[in-house]
Amino acid sequence: MGNNNKDEEFRFPFSSFVGSRIGNFLQIAFRCGFDLEYTRRAILSLIIAIILEPFRWINRGIRFVTMPRGKKAAPPWFIVGYWRSGTTLMHQLLSEDPDFYYVTTFQTIFPELMFFQRPLKWVVQFFMPRRRPVDHLKLSLDDAQEEEIALANLFPYSFYHFLYFPNDYKNARDRSLYLDRMPPKRRQRWLRVYNRMILDAQKNKGGKRLLSKSPANTFRIKQLKEYYPGPKFIYLYRDPYSVLSSLNLFFTEVVKGVGFREIPNDEFNKCLLDLFIRMDEEYEKVKNDIGEENLVEVRFEDFIKAPLDTVVKIYEQFGETPSPDVVEKIKDRLAEYKGHKPGHYTIPPEIISLVNENLGDYLNKKGYEKVGSR
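RESULT FIELD:
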């Protein structure tokens, strides 16, 4: 798997899988195994997960008494599209609108310990890097975060088990991404767990509606559209040469930072290509059923040139207008990024070959030029 030089190592003595239920942890771990170099992290993570288990039960009891049951969240805004296509920046900018609530970084790591945030935040901040790998965007336990990380800790059907055990790609893909292929009871369980997580986020942040960011949800648009009446979808895309190269670096650093297994880089790239092709196929199947009033497609290269204008246009296409206060908050957030220098990378020849051999039709469809082999 690839390498990337950074000012700060994205490394932890334990994994973010410590927030998982013990049964979930052991089920995935026994199926996938551990690489020898990650044995210490695996043992430490399991010990911490065992220590936290009683607190999870206490949290569940408090939640059972205090949280409404059977309630669905208000129609959300879903940010979807392939990883490294600008979904994180879009999520952060829209999160400046106080009408939105969202899953935080803390909730993704400890989704069933929300009533113990203060002491756990105090501990975790000593181990948490200040920046994400590759793009070096700021990391904060209170920032908007991708909810698939929380799902990996909640039950056995999350694609992000792939980040802990990349050798188990096919299982992670088939068990979690295709909700329409799940047995009905498992699908309903997935939706209940997802909605419960959303309601916890609302109680934590306040606000009227969910702002969701999860590339994996690109596979689940049909089911989410049926479960939440009237949702809005923001789909981002980017040239596949850059997106696959960047994702290789990003996922590699995440796996090395919190995972337990590795796979050869060429095999890893094939997994990412397979994921790209399958995601595009699923999106093309459902996009016409969403409705123009509920879908915005955003080209990364345009978004990054004019982020504020892009966000305002999204509101307008959804029949809304951001308040002046929200616009100012977005401007302030963008000002924080002035002078920001993301990690630099070159597109390796193997990515060029994979894209040229497999994604010619996609390049033509999206208006990207084919890069010559080197």
